[in-house]
Every structure is written in C-alpha cells, then in structure tokens.
Design a protein that fits this description.
The protein has 240 residues and is α/β, with parallel strands linked by helices. The protein is 45% helix and 20% strand. The chain has helices at 3-9, 18-32, 55-58, 72-81, 93-97, 118-131, 150-164, 167-178, 182-189, 196-205, 233-239, and strands at 42-47, 62-68, 88-91, 104-110, 132-143, 208-212, 224-230. Helix 3 (55-58) links the parallel strand 1 and strand 2 (62-68). Helix 7 runs antiparallel to helix 8. The N and C termini lie far apart (35 Å).
Length: 240
Amino acid sequence: MDPWIDFWNRPNAIYVNQRNIDAHFDCIVRDLREFVPPGDTKVVLDFGCGEAVGASRLADGCSTLYLYDAAPAVRDRVRERLAGDRRIKVLDGNGLHHLPAASVDLVLVVSVVQYMARDELSDALRLWHRILKPDGALIIADVIDPATPIHVDVRSQLAFARKNGFLVAALGGLVRMFFSNYRDLRNRAGFAMYRQEEMLGMLRSGGFEGTVLPRNIGPGAHRKAFRARKLTKQARAAAE
C-alpha cells in the first residue's frame, strides 16, 4: 500500500479533536458554496474526500455527489455514516474508473495533490478530463508553494485554531506531530509542492486551461487554488 494511503488508513493526529474536524470541514463547505450553491443540480466528484463531514450540506447543490478516497478505512466510515443519503455515492477505485465519460459537472480536489506523486497527478488529470462534461470544471485547492516557510503554515493553523476555539489542543497536536512519524513520512514518501506556473503547466499537459482563483478553499489562506476547464480540440492540437 502507498505510504500516504497507509497513513490515512490508520488513526492519526492530523485533526486534534472533533472541534478541529468540524471547523475544518465547515470552512471548506462554506468556500465551496461559490461552486456548488444550494438548490443546484450538478453531478460532482469530491476526489480525496477524507472524512467528508460536510458532504450532506455539499449535496444540497448536487443531483449526485460522488465521494472517493484512496484509503479503504476512510471509505468504509464515510459509506456507513452517509448510507441514508441517496444523493451521495461512495466510490472505490473500480467505481471511480468506471464513471461514464463526460458525466460529471465538477471535480473537487481539495488538499490532496500534496500526497500524490507527479505521475499519479498526471494519471488523475487524464481521468478527470475523461469524466468531465465539455463545459465541466476542475477545482484543485490547497496547493502549497515550495517556497512557503514552515512557520507560515504553523501560524495559519494556530490562527484557525484560535478563531475556532481549539488553540490549546492545536498546540499539543503540533508537539505530538513533531515527535510522530509524520515528518519522517513526508521525507520518505514525498510531499508534493508546486509553484503557480508548475501547476498551470501540469493542467495544460492534462488537457486543461487553468486559472488561479482569488483565494484558497479551506483554512490556509496562503495556499493556492486553481480552476480549470477542458481545452478545446483546436487548443489541444495547437499545444501539441
């Protein structure tokens, strides 16, 4: 099993308590309202959904909300928790790759690409390109620039914790994380970071025309988010 999938498949200390989990997903759902407003009827894929705590609220803007996570234990928890919501379908890898071509309006990839090797991202871009409708959109968010100092990330996390009432727990979580295997895993398994022009280049290589969004999705305001649409056949031919 991929080291990052194995990490997410087991209990970990990324979220310090339930308040952290709730605040994190509340922030993401609020930010996604711009793309999935309540009452809309989009077919949406949340790729790398994690615990998907806000999925039922996100589904208010969907005719179908597909959830996919590479970690089997995460999928099982999400599937069990959301079993009663007929708008939501939790996919495994087989189900993901068998989604029909041009069947999805919007693909969401929030805080995922840092855990993917570059060739895995390239493969995923081909998949997303195939399943998106001609006028569909891809949102990739929470992309970390390699020039970002670690203290900027830490300061952002602590500011979010203070605002949402779990600062003491967050400080303890940072200490536990420092002495955990997370840092070693980042060094061993890799942690992908992209400059803005690199991500736009990856998108173009995958058949997309990308733009930088004015703000990120989620708590990390210093990180980047991108919106991409499929290149026309003529534009792809010119690029090649």
